[in-house]
Amino acid sequence: MAAVTFSHIGITVPDLDRAVEFYSKCFDFYVIMPPTTIHHDDSAIGQMCDDVFGEGWGSFRIAHLSTGDGIGIELFEFPKTVEETRPFEYWRKGLFHFCLQDEKLEERVKLIERMGGRQRMQQVRYYYPGQKPYRMVYVEDPFGNVFELYSHSYELTYSAGAYV
Fold first, then answer.
1. Rounded to whole angstroms, how far apart are CA atoms 14 and 10?
2. What is residue 125's predicted lDDT score, i.e. its pLDDT?
3. The pLDDT of residue 65 is above 80
4. What is the Cα–Cα distance from 155 to 47, expressed in whole angstroms?
5. 20-41 pLDDT, tens per residue?
6. Strands, sheet with 59-66, edge to edge from the N-terminal-most edge strand
7. Which H/E stretch holds residue 107?
8. Which of 39, 42, 96, 143 has the most CB atoms around its CB within 10 Å?
């Protein structure tokens, strides 16, 4: 069997319209499906949601975006989604970040900050200071979702043994 490819990631936000604006403007993501309301019913999507969320989920809003290389960003807003500040508990099981790539990541960080996000780290860090231009930084969207920016591909960054 061949290695699988990455399809999409789902992110829950308290303000779907603001999230679509943030991700489409900060990263030039394509809006494939603008914010849409999904209701509990007998449709195919309604039945899929029953399987995932269980009975009684009612309705939610969803939008679909895509990166330049075709990876999906699925944004959700549920009626019970609360805008809250939570501690960054990286040690808890489950996903704690995703990573996007942009060689001009310093410029991207400035745009993220202008759009209401923030840089989590005090500075952009180099994996191979003085040797290679591979850089990284952790940031947050306006809702506190943590993600990382790389200047170069995952393969290039780690093929040379980044932690040696």
1. 13
2. 96
3. yes
4. 39
5. 999 999 999 999 999 999 999 9
6. 8-12, 72-77, 59-66, 30-39
7. helix 105-114
8. 143
Residue 38 CA to residue 53 CA, distance in Å, equals: 13
Helix axes 105-114, 16-27, angle to 10 degrees: 150
Query: What gap in Å lies between CA 146 and CA 120, rounded to an integer?
Result: 8
Token pair listed for 130? 């003085």
CA distance 132 to 153: 13
SS3 content of the chain, % helix, strand, coil (to 5): 25, 30, 50
- Smallest CA-to-CA distance from 119 within 88, 146, 84, 143 is with 146
Nearest to 99 by CA among 136, 62, 72: 136
- Cβ–Cβ contacts within 10 Å for residue 54, how many? 8
* Structure token digits, residue 71: 């990876």
Query: Alpha-carbon distance 112 to 119, whole Å?
Result: 8
Within 10 Å of residue 130's Cβ, how many Cβ atoms? 5
Give me the half-sphere count of Cα atoms (radius 13 Å) on the Cβ side of residue 65.
23
